[in-house]
Design brief:
kinase; five-stranded mixed β-sheet; HisK_dim/P_dom; binds adenosine-5'-triphosphate; transferase; rod-shaped; binds magnesium ion; Helix Hairpins; five-stranded antiparallel β-sheet
């Protein structure tokens, strides 16, 4: 924009200087006094903001017409040692823009040329600056209005776009929940049928019994996956803070439940499981979910530890938080496997061979519950030596 405006102004100045060129001969002899009648050149330039200077061939000022710019703005002579190629010569002196042309006359049928003098057309740049500032202001205003419009439209558009997505996601989760529920009934029927058949083992061949057991195991596994999926969907569906039913949960009660359920199980596998009881600690959260979180971690610790190993649940109090760590001396997790353990359905190779019936959702559920409670979960593990899962939760 700036370039075009200046270029246009330069073109106009050049045209003005060229119009004044034929007068140079007369100016040299008579000055400007008698010119008025012969050429109406005064009409061609804006006397208030432009000026015209005529110089002789040595660069000495002969005459001046139009706005009387301050002398300090530009030199009163044309610099010597300029060649023909240097013209037209554009220059800005402070607030004044000038164009100087050299005037030549042809001699002996155009074969030689004589320098007659110079014409300088000058113009104040104030007007251009004024226009430029007005344009800038207009552009800034336009940009601001455009930005405001874009913001308003974007917010409206985003709201319109996100609302159906949110709604769609909720519907999809509800649908998955319903599908899982629907799958439960036929699965229960299959397991009931196989159990009835197995109960009458004397009437069927041993090869059939084996097949029925395989079917039964598969059905049990499917049921577990469906149960875990339903839990995950339910937790996700109630991710809305308003829907969360949080209360003051006693950590001691949670740990006592765990103790009653898992210490005997560990003992039956010859694993020494100890749960340290803290003093009356309250956590803000959902009792059922916090129970499930600790259950999933302790279940893993017992499942992936060999007989003769140890499992320890410890509690560490901070001013605002409590850290519950579940440690074991089990098979551990490799560095390569660690980034995947919280992913849906992911199971380690060793875990698969040790325990075929897992679904790979236990840690995903644990992670989701911790997140929902605004907490943090971290793992430290050494293959062959054991693992330590730490959960940080906010105290009441
Ligand atoms: N304490 C642990 N020691 C060693 N490996 C573990 C431990 N906890 C988890 N892992 C690894 O992380 C994987 C994922 O654990 P996650 O609890 O999600 O699934 P899972 O135990 O295989 O099956 P399930 O869904 O029935 O719990 C496990 O398969 C195992 O490889
Ligand atoms: Mg597990």
């Amino acid at each position: 924009m700036t370039y075009n405006l200046e270029q246009q102004s330069n073109q106009e100045l050049l045209a003005l200087a060229e119009i004044a060129a034929p007068i140079l001969e007369i100016v040299k002899v008579e000055g400007l006094q008698n010119l008025e009648q012969e050429v109406p050149w005064r009409d061609l330039f804006a006397e208030q903001k432009q000026s015209l200077d005529w110089f002789d061939s040595k660069g000495k000022l002969l005459a001046r017409e139009g706005k009387n710019f301050q002398r300090s703005y530009f030199p009163q002579t044309i610099a010597a040692a300029k060649t023909r190629e240097d013209f037209p010569f554009y220059k800005r002196w402070g607030q004044v823009r000038t164009v100087t042309i050299a005037v030549y006359t042809d001699n002996t049928e155009g074969k030689t040329e004589t320098l007659e003098g110079y014409i300088r057309a000058s113009e104040s740049t104030e007007e251009i600056n004024l226009i430029r500032n007005k344009l800038k202001l207009a552009l800034t205003l336009r940009e601001t209005i455009a930005m405001l419009l874009i913001c308003t439209i974007s917010i409206g558009f985003t709201q319109q776009t996100i609302m159906p997505v949110k709604h769609g996601l909720k519907k999809l989760k509800q649908l998955s929940s319903e599908v899982s529920h629907q799958l439960r009934t036929p699965l229960s029927r299959i397991s009931m049928a196989t159990e009835i058949l197995l109960a009458h083992g004397d009437k069927i061949q041993s090869s059939e019994t084996r097949k029925l057991n395989i079917i039964n195991d598969a059905v049990e596994q499917l049921k577990r996956v469906i149960e875990d999926l339903l839990v995950l969907i339910r937790i996700d569906l109630t991710a809305d803070p308003e829907e969360l039913q949080f209360s003051d949960v006693s950590l001691n009660l949670l740990l006592q439940n765990l103790q009653a359920r898992f210490v005997p199980l560990a003992r039956s596998r010859n694993i020494d499981c100890q749960i340290q009881m803290p003093h009356n600690i309250l956590i803000k959260g959902n009792t059922a979910e916090l129970n499930r979180l600790l259950k999933n971690l302790l279940e893993n610790a017992i499942d992936y530890t060999k007989p003769g190993g140890k499992v320890l649940v410890l509690t560490k109090l901070e001013r605002k938080t409590v850290t519950i760590s579940v440690q074991d001396t089990g098979m551990g997790i490799t560095v390569e496997e660690l980034p995947f353990i919280f992913q849906h359905f992911w199971r380690g190779e060793l875990a698969k061979s040790k325990r075929t019936e897992g679904s790979g959702l236990g840690l995903t559920i644990a992670h989701t519950i911790v997140q929902q409670h605004g907490g943090k979960i971290e793992v430290d593990s050494q293959p062959g030596q054991g693992s330590c899962f730490k959960v940080h939760l906010e105290r009441c």
